[in-house]
Amino acid sequence: MPNDFDTPIERRGTGSNKWSRHPADVLPLWVADLDFAVAPAIVAAMQERLRHPVFGYAAAGQRLRERVVLHCAARYGWSIAAEDVVFLPGVEPGFNMALKALARPGDGVVVNTPVYRPILEAPGHWNLRRVDLPLTLDGCGQPGIDADALDAALAQAAVYLLCNPHNPTGKVFRRDELVALAQACARHDTWIVSDEIHCDLTFDGRDHVPIASLDAEVARRTVTLMAASKTYNIAGLKTAFAIVPDADLRRRFEASRLGMVDSVNLFGLVATEAALEHGEAWRADLIAYLAANRDHLHDRLHTRLPGVRTTRPEATFLAWLDCSQMDLRPDPQSFFVDRARVALSAGSEFGDTHRSWVRLNFGCPRATLDDAIERMAAALDDR
Ligand SMILES: Cc1ncc(COP(=O)(O)O)c(C=O)c1O
Fold this sequence. Notes:
This protein is α/β, with parallel strands linked by helices. It has helices spanning about 15-20, 40-50, 60-75, 90-100, 115-125, 145-155, 175-185, 215-220, 230, 245-255, 265-280, 280-305, 330-340, 365-380, and strands at about 25-30, 85-90, 110, 130, 135, 145, 160-165, 190-195, 220-225, 240-245, 320, 340-345, 345, 355-360.
């Protein structure tokens, strides 16, 4: 039976962050989780584990580590060893640990703005200086990186905190772009911390290239952060992993747990293993559904909300919408939540210069997406 992504699932009253923040008449298309049922193979693995009645502290077993190794080889052509993998309760703790491990107070950390708020905020947690490297937009609105600006930014930094695929723009860095980034980091002797949580959500046959997979020299200076959480909708199980091939770097990384980043959720480990072992067919269906939602959203915005400018994201289930032509007061996020009863993420979360943008999560049944688009269009018509 094909996976059913069309039938809405009632999530109110289930402890969902996405569905409990706003009043009941508001459609939530903000925080990045999917409104889809988790793959049956993952649920079955968790149910099987539930049959054992003890839920003490968990540790990732060799089988799971080997599964990550296989996954990296099969999906990205990246050869890693089981001991390179460090399990963590999240990618966000992972990039904070890495910054703590690699930089000293006052050092610079390059980030590509606009970007996911916890990435913007992480340097500040460790008294590091954030060095913004704004993404450029080409004539078609596609984001990129200016080589001179990159060099200038890296000259002031100890770490490049990369987000690939990029949240919120959905950009997938191409191999040639990553080579240029890695060469620039080598020239400036800059560490790379690469948040690749959206790695398995690429569209249109695009490959995800982990920057550390380029060559051994890049791997030596890189902490890669991944998870099954976004792709398989298991973010609430709080499980992610770092891949750190260099043993010294891995020791430094491990040493920065600082009593705050503890062991990993038992069920998260079970679910991650099941996702990587049995999830591929489900993932393929998901990608097809999300790509169709993306295209549908793009077309409907064009006809129903022509004032909104956007591009088709190359990955993720997040659309980045430029509302600057419409002068929505007091800001687009407040306008849409108050007048359309649709909750989006405010552009200001992703950087000060993006207050007239919003991020829309299209990881929902098509009917929910259509409802949101119609509500937004009607609110604009009524202005
Ligand atoms: C780019 C990016 N990194 C990290 C996270 C959070 O990861 P975790 O829940 O594993 O800390 C998100 C969640 O939306 C994200 O989009």
